[in-house]
């Protein structure tokens, strides 16, 4: 039996540390002591022969191996939790969806471009009484806006929240290199040539850590930034007309490739993917419409951003 080989409760601890980015906050969420959480992680580290988390400042950042297996762990735990709930009342949900309601979301523009086409095509066709009102929020605004019920759901990168804010990994953002078609770097793609050219950087509101620069620091390399802006579409529009390079999330890059004369290529160095989470307040946990929308967004995330 599986429980004779490994304690399944260890995965609940792993999920809490991953979501909270902190052993202290994970311990508080699970009502355990910090040594108990550390001991659980130690057992899993020994089992997988992987550090699972490394400390970066005050945060516990998941290793690449841990990031890769978290979607399966989240899915498995969710399925186990669902067995404790009664069968959903489909007729009751349909009755609720037939009532006019606006769902307020907090998404960055890049995530709107990825999630909204499949989401809204489904809603307009099958649930026309449900509307979507979306605007961008900063990471610092996520908890207060959810608590004050100014937004119903937020999708953004991993950030610490209190235990009253629920979260779930929805997808991982991987990075690609963007440049004009026939750019010289495509003939010899390496870190040295990557450093040689000028770069555009998109700085997201509320974000203080640049994952790409952190990855480059391992090579002792930095970028010559000639453009810093807030929107990838603007930076990509510049990159397709000159030799400036742009590093951006792959899913959105592929979408822009259909509209702009750009080339999309793998990076010549490894950048850890950014885990993207969905957040909602515990008061919305049993809201049938909120739960219905969460499931749709989760499905889209798994399909578009595996």
TrEMBL record:
Pfam families: HTH_1 (PF00126), LysR_substrate (PF03466). CDD domains: PBP2_Nitroaromatics_like (cd08417). InterPro entries: LysR-type_TF (IPR050389), LysR_HTH_N (IPR000847), LysR_subst-bd (IPR005119), WH-like_DNA-bd_sf (IPR036388), WH_DNA-bd_sf (IPR036390), YidZ_PBP2 (IPR037402). Keywords: DNA-binding, Transcription, Transcription regulation. Gene3D superfamilies: Periplasmic binding protein-like II, Winged helix-like DNA-binding domain superfamily/Winged helix DNA-binding domain. Signal peptide: none annotated. Residues 6-63 form the HTH lysR-type domain. This is LysR family transcriptional regulator.
């Amino acid at each position: 039996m599986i429980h004779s080989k490994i304690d399944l409760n260890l995965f609940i601890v792993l999920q809490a540390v991953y979501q909270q980015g902190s052993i202290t906050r994970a311990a508080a969420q699970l009502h355990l002591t910090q040594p108990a959480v550390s001991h659980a992680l130690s057992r899993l580290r020994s089992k997988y022969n992987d550090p699972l988390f490394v400390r970066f400042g005050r945060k516990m950042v998941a290793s690449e191996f841990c990031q890769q297996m978290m979607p399966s762990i989240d899915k498995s735990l969710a399925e186990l939790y669902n067995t404790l709930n009664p069968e959903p009342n489909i007729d009751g949900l349909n009755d609720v969806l037939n009532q006019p309601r606006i769902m307020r979301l907090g998404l960055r523009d890049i995530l709107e471009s990825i999630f909204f086409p499949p989401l809204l095509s489904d809603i307009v066709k099958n649930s026309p009484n449900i509307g979507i009102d979306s605007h961008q929020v900063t990471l610092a605004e996520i908890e207060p806006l959810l608590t004050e019920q100014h937004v119903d759901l937020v999708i953004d990168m991993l950030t610490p929240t209190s235990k009253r804010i629920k979260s779930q990994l929805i997808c991982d953002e991987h990075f690609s290199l963007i440049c004009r078609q026939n750019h010289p770097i495509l003939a010899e793609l390496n870190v040295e040539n990557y450093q040689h050219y000028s770069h555009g950087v998109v700085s997201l509101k509320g974000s203080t850590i640049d994952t790409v620069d952190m990855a480059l620091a391992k090579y002792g390399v930095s970028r010559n930034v000639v453009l810093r802006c807030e929107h990838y579409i603007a930076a990509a529009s510049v990159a397709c007309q000159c030799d400036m390079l742009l590093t951006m999330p792959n899913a959105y890059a592929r979408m822009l490739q259909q509209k702009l004369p750009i080339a999309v290529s793998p990076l010549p160095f490894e950048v850890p993917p950014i885990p993207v989470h969905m957040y909602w307040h515990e008061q919305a946990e049993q809201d049938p419409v909120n739960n219905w929308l969460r499931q749709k967004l989760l499905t889209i995330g798994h399909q578009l951003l595996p």
